[in-house]
């Protein structure tokens, strides 16, 4: 019986999920009727499924990066909500000549960009932009 | 509250405020899936941002025949799988940063750690990655086998095998742990 059970195990799982056609289903059911070990395994698998479904949903943390002072709108606001373009703005203010590389879009790169100190001219530009907008 | 299809339609017509509403609606669900797959709040947060950014930039490719939630969650799963591949390289940077200034965990992180200590989550993290991804999409998010197969770019038969092996392994570990 043990060997039978081992061989049948994948089919037993397919049976539980309803993936079998009629003949295969009948074969599994015939085995189940005379095998308490496989019936116990089914119950244990159902418990695993329930445990996974019962994992609680977690609240997403609030945005990690600060939003700039001016009230952004539309796509800009969305982008800010996702934090990435904040970094792009800062990159643009700091070094208008450098187009942001693909790396600049990576969250880790964003954090690095934000934690790096402003260069003096960029700081001035940032201050001026804040005055204007 | 407009339904997902309406919000997507508005967004495609240029009303980006509509996307804000989709983000608000799904951020907890996307974050939770990412956390279940990556096992760590900060990595899950990065993955959430990346997933929404991709969803926004690829919205025109979304097929309305499929529920928006399914599309978004599949996209999130793919982002998480890629994130783990990039991780080995990032690990070194993070280790260096940690040596320089070990950051105190925030209250939020401590709460997630407590959550993470829960047996099922801890054992999930021990499963091989494709099995874990398949298990979470199928049982936790209740996607169909066909949808999981598309999300993970694998044949349906392979997904069924991952689900069987993952479930049997979890059963064995849980019975060992819980006596
Ligand atoms: Zn048996």
Describe the fold and architecture.
The complex is a heterodimer of chains A (133) and B (179). By secondary structure, chain A is mainly α. Helix content of chain A is 66%, strand content 0%. Chain A has a domain of 52 residues. Chain A is built from seven helices and no strands. The radius of gyration of chain A is 29 Å and the shape is elongated. By secondary structure, chain B is an all-alpha fold. In chain B, 78% of the residues lie in helices and 0% in strands. Chain B has two domains: 97 residues, RNA polymerase sigma factor, region 2, helix turn helix motif (Rna Polymerase Sigma Factor, Chain: A), CATH 1.10.1740; 72 residues, Winged helix-like DNA-binding domain superfamily/Winged helix DNA-binding domain (Arc Repressor Mutant, subunit A). The N and C termini of chain B lie far apart (48 Å). Chain B is built from nine helices and no strands. Classes of the chains: A mainly alpha (133), B mainly alpha (179). Chains A and B meet through helix 1, helix 3 and helix 4 of A and helix 2, helix 3, helix 5, helix 6 and helix 7 of B. The site of zinc ion (ZN) has 5 residues of chain A, from helix 3.
């Amino acid at each position: 019986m043990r060997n039978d059970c081992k061989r049948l195990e994948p089919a037993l799982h397919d049976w539980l999920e309803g993936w079998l056609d009629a003949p295969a289903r009948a074969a599994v059911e015939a085995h189940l009727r005379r095998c308490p070990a496989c019936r116990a395994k089914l119950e244990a698998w159902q418990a695993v499924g329930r445990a996974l479904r019962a994992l609680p949903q977690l609240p997403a943390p609030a945005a990690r990066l600060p939003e700039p002072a001016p009230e952004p709108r539309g796509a800009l606001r969305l982008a800010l909500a996702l934090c990435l373009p904040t970094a792009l703005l800062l990159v643009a203010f700091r070094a208008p000549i450098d187009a942001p590389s693909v790396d600049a879009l990576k969250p880790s790169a964003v954090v690095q960009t934000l934690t790096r100190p402003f260069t003096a001219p960029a700081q001035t530009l940032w201050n001026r932009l804040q005055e204007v907008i | 509250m407009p339904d997902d299809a309406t919000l997507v339609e508005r967004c495609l017509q240029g009303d980006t405020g509509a996307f804000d509403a989709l983000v608000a609606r799904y951020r907890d669900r996307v974050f939770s899936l990412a956390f279940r797959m990556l096992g760590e709040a900060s990595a899950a947060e990065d993955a959430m941002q990346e997933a929404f950014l991709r969803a926004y930039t690829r919205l025109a490719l979304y097929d309305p025949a499929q529920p928006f939630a399914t599309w978004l969650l599949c996209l999130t799963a793919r982002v998480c799988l890629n994130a783990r591949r990039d991780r080995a390289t990032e690990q070194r940077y993070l280790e260096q940063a940690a040596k320089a200034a070990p950051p105190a965990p925030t209250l939020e992180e401590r709460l997630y750690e407590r959550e993470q200590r829960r047996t099922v989550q801890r054992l999930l993290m021990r499963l091989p990655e494709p099995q874990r991804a398949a298990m979470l999409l199928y049982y936790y998010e209740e996607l169909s086998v066909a949808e999981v197969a598309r999300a993970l770019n694998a044949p349906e038969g392979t997904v069924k095998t991952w689900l069987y092996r993952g479930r049997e392994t979890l059963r064995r570990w849980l019975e060992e742990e819980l006596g």
